[in-house]
Amino acid sequence: MGEAPLDTPSPQTHPQKSDEQVKEPAGTSLGTHHTVFEQLRQQQKAGDFGIGASQMKVDRFINMDITRECMGPSYKDNRTLLQKIDNLPQGPTWKCHTITVKGDFLDENGDPMEEELNIGCCVPVECVCKLIGNPDFGDAMKYVPERLFSDESEEEEIINEMWTAQWWWDTQTSKRGMILLGYLPVTKLECLHEHAQKGAKFRLFYYVMSILLEPLIEAGKKGVQMTCADWHIRIVYPILAAYIAHFPEQCLIVGVQPTDCPICEIDSDDRGEPSHAPFRDSSCTLSALKDWVTEVSSEEYTRLGLQPIPKPFWAEQPHTDIFSCLTPDLLHQLHKGVFKDHLVKWCLTHVGAAEIDQRFQCIPDHPTLRYFKKGISTITQWTGREFKEMQHIFASLTYGAVHSEVTTVAPAVINFIYYASYPSQSTEALHRLQDALDTFHQHKEIFVKLGICKHF
Q1: Helices (H), 313-383
Q2: Is the pTM of this model over 0.85?
């Protein structure tokens, strides 16, 4: 077989038509085309790839008569085999950006000290192209929103993947498809005085994120033609739709103080009450931040509890409401925050650690239950798995030891955690989630009456 170099397929984007030519909505098929993966598969079937092992033994194996006669490899030795491997398609193109941070310390020449930081990142549009054209995701890929119902009357709606939620309908899967987008620089910024480092790190984070996501701005507005896993060519509008982060990072992302809610405008003193507050608005937030940058006195800036950031990285992202992009942090907010740091702590304070530990130690062996032979009060490092294993039995263990009203609150809290953790939500499950929350608020004052906490 020939020694011609392999023509490696590139990500299947297509020339974009003018705005006058493009009238089809997102998700509409514009034709068909082989994906990168299908081209590779055809080349492999045609014999463009071979298989090898290592160095001198590889050369010996390749040049064996039986190998040549039966396999007919397209390479003659280990070197040409490695050349074939090097020509295999890579993932999205990686780029390196260098940022120079000017400090407030002076060097020996009297000039401000500088620190260079490197950012390694991929082009987000190429990442989306790679994922959307992967045939492994073909059966799970959705190009338009759908509604799912569990009954024929279509009253019990099911919400699980993003394409089943109202958000997609208003704006215009599940094999855990992911591609690494980039690396954020980690630095102590020692070229700056300590009092200036925190603010500089905030600004650095926003600047780096703006570099990583900048390609999405034009692509999200005009769209990019891509070959999808079903071979159809579609106009794809890649946008920032979800952001997974724990609570402190959520506050950093949206630019609010850690004492405030990063999603709605509820007052920090009312966060423990069943109050309803409007969602934060991107336009109002950006306007208040602009007033701060221009040193204009702004009551909105104070009312919204914002942090001093010059320009959020999400400000120009099309079709993006950063406040609705934040996903729940179940581990830190529910398992650790609500359950461990509040409910368990309250009960330990109420009846004592010895009583709770003894009840955990008395649990009979069962293959589906975790046995805590030393109880739980001495555990210093809790994992997500331990949280869940404690929740299986915690509510039942409190009966007879705690106040009768506490035995109403404990199951409500744990039920809320269970319902919130469902991978697929239905109308009924959401009603039960709300019922569990309402039950907690109706009976939570028992902890104040018992002197366990002062307020909520």
Answers
A1: 322-325, 345-351, 353-361
A2: no
